[in-house]
Amino acid sequence: MNDREALVSELVGDRADTWDLTGLIPAEPLRKLGEAGLLCGELPEQYGGLGLSSLDNGRFTAHVGSLCSSLRSVMTSQGMAAWTIQRLGSAQQRAGHLPRLTSGTLAAVGFSEPEAGSDLSAISTEIRPDGEDVVVDGRKVWVTAAHYAHLLVIFGRYGDGAAAVLVPADAPGVTVERVADPMGCRAAGHAGIRLDSVRLPRDHVLGGAGAALTMLVTAALSYGRMSVAWGCVGILRACLAAASRHAKSREQFGRPLAQHQLIGGHLADLLVAEQTATRVCEHASHRWDEGSPDMVTAAVLAKHVGATQAAAAAATAVQVLASAGASDGHVVARAYRDAKLMEIIEGSNELCRLMLAQHALSVSG
What we know:
By secondary structure, this protein is of the alpha+beta class. It has helices at 3-12, 16-22, 27-35, 54-67, 69-88, 91-97, 213-249, 261-290, 295-321, 331-342, 349-363, and strands at residues 107-110, 126-130, 133-143, 151-158, 161-168, 174-178, 191-201, 251-252, 255-256. The radius of gyration is 21 Å and the shape is globular.
């Protein structure tokens, strides 16, 4: 275990169950991880980041995901915000805002709206120039980490194109309302955001304003999909470890569960799922680090494989542990709920399959 993993293991300890039940991660571990640059590990050192490769950051993300998917979700949100500012921001915007994300400021990214989920082309949030300012009006839903965030990265319509704008969470006209009792990742701070005539200096609009919405959103979502994919590897490892421990220690019909062939088959399935997701994530991170033209598709593939494998594996782990794992807050019970959300966020299973089908058609000649 490296220093990064040791720190997050110490901060989480045995508290993930409590965080899940209370729906809240305390401020102290978020502050410490943020100040250590661990919530957006790929950010270059010049901005106070660690400059990790996608592969190294992915492996760290998997470790966080194995401990607490809610914390990993906050990490995904912070990383997406940093990636968006890094990719779309001007040099001045990068220098002004990125160091904040490695010194304790928490950020959230708003895509989805009441009428714009998988179809982000239906986004109606408006970023309207008004003299030296811009005015933002709209509504975002299910924004991960918004409850904790000091800074909101909001995507919306901008003239004939689109833009991302940096909105302080305490700006006049901003209302953040927590999602009540989410099914999974209960402590990830999911919230809805209302933006009522929020007036901001025009330099809060990131560079690239007026570009096609798809291009702007894809930049942020690709990072998010990589992070979710590696987080699913963590869920798989937690399920495999819990199911294996239980199968070795629990006896039925005079022998450990692990010696019953059907249970052994479940354990084999869990191992195959974990190894499959890991290899696909490693492939995607290699493409990311190489700047390969197929990095976007590789990220979609990794997210889809990771999420589907994690959801199926979590159900298998609950089956192996039976009543022992059915208590609310137990690691496999959490995994069962958390993994299902992974099949929805950052591109649903169905949307991922459509994108992969389009890729298959494009390469088939």
